[in-house]
Design a protein that fits this description.
Helix content: 25-40%
Strand content: 15-25%
Mean pLDDT: 77
Radius of gyration: 53 Å
Low-confidence stretches: 144-149
Structural class: alpha+beta
Distance between the termini: 161 Å
Shape: rod-shaped
Length: about 150
C-alpha cells in the first residue's frame, strides 16, 4: 500500500508556477470587428432596405386596389341604375269629348280628355306597372264677345 498521508511535494521545483506560452486574458479592443461581423452588419442593412422596399410596394398596391374597388362599386351602381325599368310619358294626347255632366244624368257637356302615352325606356320590363287615371273635368268655354280689361 501507498502512504497518502503526506501530500506536500518534497522538492522546491513544484513551488514555481508553470511556464505558459499563452495569455490567460487577452487584451482585446472594445470594438473587435472581424470580417464576419462586417458581413453581418452589411446583410442586416440589406434586410432593412428590402423591408422598406416591400413596405413601399405594399402601400402602392393597397392604393391601387382601393381605387379599383371604388371603380367597381361605381360600376355596380351604374349597372343597377341602367338595368331598371325607366317609365316616362312620351307624349300626351289631348281630345275634346262630349260626356255626361256629373250629378246631372241625361245632360251632356263637352270636356277635355288627357291621355299620356307611357313608354319603358329601360332594359328591364316593368313589374306590376299600373296607372291610376284621375278624372278631371274641365268644361269647354265658348268664346264670348266680352272684352277682358
Amino acid at each position: 500500500m501507498t502512504d497518502l498521508g503526506n501530500t506536500e511535494p518534497n522538492d522546491r521545483r513544484n513551488d514555481e508556477p508553470p511556464q505558459r506560452y499563452w495569455e490567460a486574458t487577452r487584451q482585446e479592443r472594445f470594438f473587435d470587428l472581424k470580417f464576419s461581423h462586417y458581413v453581418e452588419i452589411i446583410l442586416t442593412a440589406a434586410l432593412v432596405g428590402i423591408a422598406y422596399f416591400q413596405y413601399t410596394v405594399y402601400q402602392r398596391q393597397a392604393g391601387i386596389m382601393q381605387t379599383q374597388a371604388d371603380i367597381a362599386l361605381r360600376q355596380n351602381d351604374i349597372t343597377v341604375q341602367s338595368s331598371r325599368a325607366i317609365v316616362f310619358a312620351k307624349d300626351v294626347r289631348v281630345e275634346k269629348k262630349d260626356g255626361v255632366i256629373p250629378g246631372k244624368p241625361g245632360q251632356f257637356e263637352a270636356y277635355w280628355w288627357f291621355a299620356p302615352v307611357v313608354e319603358n325606356g329601360g332594359s328591364t320590363p316593368t313589374k306590376k306597372c299600373e296607372s291610376a287615371p284621375k278624372s278631371l273635368s274641365i268644361p269647354v268655354v265658348q268664346k264670348s264677345s266680352q272684352d277682358c280689361r
